[in-house]
Amino acid sequence: MNRKMLKKAALSVALGACLGALAPTVMAQSATGAIAGRANSGDQITITNTATGLTRTVTAGSDGSYRLSQLPVGDYSLTVKRDGQADKEPLAVNVSLGGTTNVNLGGSDTGPVTLDSVQVVGSRIVNRVDVYSTESSFNISREELSRMPVDQSVAAVALLAPGVVNSGSSFGGLSFGGSSVAENVAYINGLNVTDPYRRQGFSTVPFNFYQEFQVKTGGYSAEFGRSTGGVINAITRSGTNEFKGGVEVTMEPSAWASAKKDHFHRDGTIDERDRTSRDRSPLMKTNVWASGPILKDKLFFFAMYENRDSKSQDVDATEAWKTKSNNDFWGTKLDWYINDNNRLELLAFSDKADSVTTSYDNYNWDTNIFGDSSGQSSGSSGGDNWSLTYTGTLTDNFVAKAMYGVNKRSAVSNSPMDAECSIITLASSYTKKYGPKTNEGCHPTNAAISSRDDKREAARLDFEWTLGDHLLRFGLDQEVMDSDSSVVYPGDGFMYQALVVNAGSSVNGVVLPPGVTDIIDARYKVTGSPVSTKAQAFYVEDNWNVTPNLLLNLGVRFDQFHNKLASGATFAKSTFSDMISPRLGFSWDVQGDGSMKVFGNAGRYYTPLTNKIADYFGGGTTDEHTYYVLQGWSQKQSSTGNTYLVPVLGQQIGPVNTDGNAPAPSDVRTAVARDLKQVFQDEFILGFQQALNEEWSYGVNATYRRMTRAVEDARINHVEGCPWYSGDWPIINPGETNQLWCPDTNSWVTLDSSKDGYKASGSGAIMGYKRPKRTYKALEFQLDRAWNDKWAFNASYILSKSEGNIEGPVNSDTGYNDTNLVQYYDHPAVNERYGVTFNDARHQFKLRGTFKLNEQWSFGSTLSARSGGPITAFGVVWPNDNRNAGGPGEYSGGGSGWLCTANCSSWANRELVYTERGAFGRMPWVVDLGASVMWTLPVEGIDLKARLSVYNLLNRQAVVNVHSRYESTPGTKMPYFGEGTHWQAPRYTNLVVTWNF
User: Fold this and answer.
1) Could you say which of 141, 262, 661, 776 is the most buried, measured as most Cβ atoms within 10 Å of its Cβ?
2) Is 567:643 a contact under the CB 8 Å cutoff?
3) CB-CB neighbours of 492 under 10 Å
4) Helix, strand, coil proportions of the chain in percent (round to 5)?
5) DSSP 594-607
6) Residue/partner pairs of 763-769 with CB below 8 Å, 24 or more apart
7) Residue 685 and residue 602: Cα distance in Å, rounded?
8) What is the dihedral of CA 123, 128, 134, 138, to 10 degrees?
């Protein structure tokens, strides 16, 4: 092989690897990438997608710069025509998700371009030297993930990125850069699929449906918003000109997993979660897919079906539950290349899931016998989703993009017997007289039906306009998020309760008939109503090449939202002038060859309110009681063959009692402050990256985040000039000046909540709430070795500190996940302390590597290790106040940093000791080592692979959360303070067998 051929092969490998941490200078929530660089003025650069035949041509400008944007992710060949002469050998180029592949095309001003004159810049995956980038992000493809032990979830992919950790909170989730789990957003092909109700979690599709992932951990540009945490951006697979298909089977039997440990308190009693060593969660997934051309070079399809079968069990000492879920997923992607300059994409998928749980109340631990079932409950989630995207290259330097899509989610908790069985219960007065019955009613759980349907309609327009040294990007978007929640009784909608009252007494305002003592209370109750949030935004951004080596990113984003109650009344509203987010960044190509850069950015990021807060304040309630004389019991038989008792209703006693009805409010001025200001975070990043050679690179960056505002419900029991506020919890900006509606004066009053709002019991002291504050400081180091078809390696270390007096819109310390409705401001003592927050992971190490032994065997490994979170004590009182600052229950509200040591029964004479956040040490390190081996059938023409992966190989089950309640009453220490409540998942193994044809 001659020198020229060797050089072409090396360049092709380098460019073909361009799939990694490259930041976008393309469009909003992009599902595409770009190619850019410099050539000679007048050069014609042509790229062709090797899989679909898409061809685009652009002419280099007067300064020699060129750009081809909004390119579908994939492999391309690039050719150059100069002065009518074309390069005979095309160059292999890869376009990654949200990235810009930089190819500089040198050569003389008169001769043709040859490979000897092509300079490849910033094309490696892991060297992260993309001179068009001013952000922190991480890219990885499906093919790369297949070589490593990464579990089949988007969360597992995100955890590969530096600064992303699994939260140890009772409600789970991911923490990006010290933020809480309720501050992230996720996109699939540009469609926002984040939970609109609490902003926790997101819609999912099978792992084999994805093509590439991008995880943004900071510094993202103006087209991204509604997040103060991180962004997960993923694209799905598409069809090509070649017909393809495949089958993938994932097996995760319980026999391949280590048992959870049974945990006991120091006094020998079993942990509140009871037994866990017999819990099991086996899983079996099978998917089939096909792709290809419907019309060659024009219309392509990709389609997948997956069956997901899970049979888990939760076994305690005397009770057990078995859950079955056998669910189907379907998804498809259609790509219509109308011509080389116009493209239409349709994505549609359904992630609906149902499960049925069978309960066993008479389980025997010693014999491991389950006995007869005591009933069943069921649940469902997910929904149907779709998006339609148009991309048009209107001229060589102007590109437009339009997207409309619908994301649906549901959360339903019910029972298979709901339609047949009403709830029938016996009051204590009845059982005291007659003794308990054992077969009243046929409902297995006597629980109400809880349901919620969420729907997001998303639409956006984006434009990209290249003008010389300026790349102007601008656009607008709108999301309408509806949530319809309800809680109703099963059966005929009534809950029947038998009671015994005194003869001759009055019930419901009516004297009972002579001799009547047994009655039935038939209660009809429906809670919940539809609520809605409309969020809108527009942005403008200029990516300005001040010099060939210096790029400035100058952008600004404007957001507004309108949060409506069930009645249609406004709960909270902001305008574009209220939420202005400037974004400034720079990237300096130090040596001019893309091998080294210094970059930085500064930006402001806002989050709007969720639907949960409107639902809490604005839902309606129908709560009616109808009373009857109980004339005895009759026997019935259910569809399952069991006999049960139902009450025989006699004469109705009085009219229907509607005192409990509460329609959805239309006036919420006392529930929310006027001109409520929204939560924002300021972020600053400064970094350096260098490619040492074509394979090795390293980088260093520093990050600082600061949040100084909250939107929360606060206890307001004193407002100067308005006695009406004697114990209410309106939504305000704590620690700031707010305007509240005063019914006494029928006017707005001004409250400086940093000085007023709370009146202590006993002492009568007037005080306010501390302004919220959260900061995150981090220093990150990375070392990368790019994949060369033999091995790859990545290592990162982060030294960070997250501190403040508030975690974010949720509270992991006390286990509350109702976004913006937690207990930080139920009492001034709760947010008095400033110190390390729940998500403070001081040290974080992450390593991953892959090694190909030969064409048949390859190996992969991942290692993450982070220091444990802080242990903070929560007391129940604070100085000079006779009112509790928190409850003793682990998930009850509030909590004080003051602990009582003497005279604890008297609020005026208590001796209290103040404790900082994290004053009681830290939990142990969380270490997770994974290993995988992949076997490939060594037969040409047959693509058959099997990968065996072991997660948490060392089976470390470190504690990740503890009992944080220090006192039950002043001076009475809780027995289990500091002991574990949640632990790292044990070792488990799965086998993935893939056959592609």
Assistant:
1) 776
2) no
3) 12
4) 5, 55, 45
5) SSEEEEEEEEEEEE
6) 763/880, 763/881, 763/882, 763/907, 763/908, 765/880, 765/881, 766/718, 767/828, 768/735, 768/828, 769/714, 769/734, 769/735, 769/825, 769/828, 769/831
7) 7
8) 110
Rounded Cα distance between 426 and 441, Å, is 10
**Contact present, 280 and 312 (Cβ < 8 Å):** yes
Q: What does the alpha-carbon distance between residue 120 and residue 115 come to, in Å, rounded to a whole number?
A: 10
**Six-digit token pair at 418?**
């709901």
Q: Which residue type does 563 have?
A: N
Q: How many CB atoms lie within 10 A of CB 865?
A: 16
Whole-angstrom CA distances from 384 to 308, 353, 520 are 17, 11, 43
| Per-residue model confidence as pLDDT tens digits over 734-755 | 999 999 999 999 999 999 999 9
Are the C-beta atoms of 631 and 649 separated by less than 8 Å?
yes
Q: Is 156 helix (H, G, I), strand (E, B) or coil?
A: helix
Which residues of the chain carry a pLDDT beneath 70? Answer: 1-30, 88, 106-128
Q: Are 566 and 592 in contact (CB under 8 A)?
A: no
Q: What is the pLDDT of residue 88?
A: 65
Task: Count the alpha carbons within 13 Å of 141 in the hemisphere toward its beta carbon.
Answer: 21
Handedness of CA 140, 143, 147, 150 (dihedral sign): positive
d(CA 216, CA 223): 13
Length in residues, the chain: 997
Residues 166, 167, 168: CA angle, nearest 5 degrees: 115
User: Which of 604-626 are b and which e, b meaning 16 or more Cβ less than 10 Å from the residue's Cβ?
Assistant: bbbbbbbbbbbbbbbbbeeebbb
Phi, psi of 914 (to 5 degrees): -90, 135
Structure tokens at 902: 């003497």
Distance set, CA 493 to CA 417, 625, 756 (Å): 13, 12, 46
Residues 6+ apart with CB under 8 A from 307: 285, 286, 287, 326, 327, 328, 329
Map tokens 């009616």 to a residue.
624
Tokens of 853: 């032994």
Amino acid in the structure at residue 675:
D
CA 486 – CA 529 distance, rounded (Å):
6
β-pairing verdict for 32-38 and 100-105: parallel
Assigned token pair, 71: 């390119």
Q: What is the pTM of this model?
A: 0.90
CA atoms within 13 A on the CB side of 420: 15
Query: From CA 486, how far away is CA 244, in angstroms rounded?
Result: 45
Looking only at the bridges linking them, the beta strands covering 791-804 and 774-785 are antiparallel
The pair of structure tokens assigned to 70 is 């909004």
Report which secondary-structure segment, H or E, holds 759.
strand 758-759
The token duo for 329 is 């997923």
**Token couple for 374:** 């005591």
- For 23, the token pair is 């930041």
Q: Are 876 and 957 in contact (CB under 8 A)?
A: no
- Which pLDDT belongs to residue 252? 97
> Residue 157: which H helix or E strand, with range?
helix 154-158
- DSSP string covering 425-438, please? EE-HHHHHHH---S
- The alpha carbons of the chain give a radius of gyration, in whole angstroms, of 31
- pLDDT reported for residue 619: 81
Beta bridge partners of 875: 896
Task: Select from 607, 601, 624, 617 the least CA-distant residue to 567.
Answer: 617
Helix/strand/coil for 378: strand
Looking at residue 133, its pLDDT comes to: 82
Of 691, 860, 687, 858, give the one whose Cα is nearest residue 786: 691
The helix (run of H) or strand (run of E) holding residue 306 is strand 299-315
Cα(934)–Cα(950) distance, rounded to whole angstroms? 12
The per-residue pLDDT for 865 is 98
| Burial classification of residue 809, based on how many CB atoms lie within 10 Å of its CB (0-12 exposed, 13-18 middle, 19 or more buried) | buried
Number of Cβ atoms within 10 Å of the Cβ of 294: 12
